[in-house]
UniProtKB/TrEMBL annotation:
InterPro entries linked: ConA-like_dom_sf, GH43_C2, Glyco_hydro_43, Glyco_hydro_beta-prop_sf, Glycosyl_Hydrlase_43
Record-annotated site: Important for catalytic activity, responsible for pKa modulation of the active site Glu and correct orientation of both the proton donor and substrate: 128
Example GO BP: carbohydrate metabolic process
Name of the molecule in the record: Glycoside hydrolase
Taxonomic superkingdom: Bacteria
SUPFAM superfamilies: Arabinanase/levansucrase/invertase, Concanavalin A-like lectins/glucanases
Organism: Alkalihalobacillus trypoxylicola
Similarity section: Belongs to the glycosyl hydrolase 43 family.
Key words, A-Z: Glycosidase, Hydrolase
Gene Ontology MF terms in the entry: hydrolase activity, hydrolyzing O-glycosyl compounds
Sequence ranges assigned to domain Beta-xylosidase C-terminal Concanavalin A-like in this UniProt record: 306-499
Catalytic residues in the record: 17 (proton acceptor), 181 (proton donor)
Amino acid sequence: MSQILIQNPIIWADVPDPCIIRVHDTYYMTSTSMHSMPGCPIMKSINLRDWEICSYVFNTFETNEHHELLNGKDIYGRGAWATSLRYHEGTYYVCFSSNDTQQFYIYQTEDIEGGSWERHVLQGLHHDPSLLFDEDRTYVIYGNGKIMIAELTKDASSHKEDGINEVLFETETDGIGLRCEGCHAYKLNGFYYLFFIEWPQFGNKRRRQVCYRSKNLFGPYESKIILDDDLGYLNQGVAQGGIVDTLEGEWFSLLFQDHGAVGRVPILLPLTWSNNWPVLDRSGKAPLSFLASFPDSENKPIVVADDFNYLENKLALQWQWNHNPDPRLWSLTEKPGCLRLRTGYLSPSVEFAKNTLTQRTEGPACKVTTSLHFKNMKVGDRAGLVALQHYYATVAITKESEGFTIVMGKRGENGYEDEVESLPFDKELIYLRMDFHFVNNQDTVKCYYSEDEINWISIGETHQLRYTLDHFMGCRIGLFNYASKDIGGFVDFNYFRYEKL
């Protein structure tokens, strides 16, 4: 075992609401995925610093107009929220609620990296749930301010008939803007520990981490503020997450912090115990970096370049679709070495474009380039790169009745795309680029195009990216193609090149 340096954030990208477990010598983490499909990513690590995506829990979890981006419906800011990951008696469990369906989903498998997941759907919203296995009984604890506890069947497949379903306790209300939520529940050393995030409107006025504990599951509970720190970043509190131990008996906590338009980034902190209370800030401040005893390992990328050289229609795990994809309208094999995106639906804007293929962006800066053949577009089609948030930006090729134009656009106040700048383009191959910078909430993207991938021409304006609750997700970079007048056209993306700066 060696000493490795851990620097926060451990991933400078959107990995919100992390939930972590250890099984033998491997750590697994899940996070919120909302409208990105496949959903509920599973990441693994051997040292809590270097993470890789190893699987997803589901490809899609509902099929309806909202999940399919049909008739102006969507699940932006909703979908799969705040997953709870647990391992019990040889089985892995993942549960979450969906605000759009008002249902509670529980998935389980014996093989977290390669197995299929059995799905159970329970009625009723169970906000920010945490599974708790307590000897031969199983519970879910959830809620916002009013903390609820419901008993499930032992195998966590349904509510237990005549089981407990009641208010566990209510958290503080005076001066609190966001009351306790984001529960992570544990039974350790004769105590029940419940970890929450809350947001007071007094003092530092930032989110903080609170722990409730009791020797009896049903209380009474006492509480302590265990972290109120921003790591020196714009008074954005570090909070909401769980704890995990190592084989050697050391403890750590994995939380998140809002980092502007790039999203909510995971923060790892050493944890000690004092009088059976968890301590995260013994020195008064959470560390930006620290040494820890872990095996060293390779840092696997969470965002990757792609030459689309596949033998089957199966993408790298780093890719996710915006909402449910239509498998009839994309292919990696129709033209080998290319991603083909066909139009099959009319769309008023890129926010409602089917089959937009996305990856995360990363701070402090990153750059993406692509090229595409577009001669098979139809009038009204638009294809290219999108910086995908509610206040999105695009750089794209558009077919009009008189020919092709290259366009930099952004979301207008009416919800549709405003063209910031457009120029005629008469070649058959175009190169597009986006440069991202994420510094102290001054988050921007700049767009470029080229005829030869050597001489890059700026187009449009430097666009201010914004993290808002409309999408409730960090900025993603997407490849898109949509029709506004007539379906059936297609484009071929030749590659996706990515560089973290």
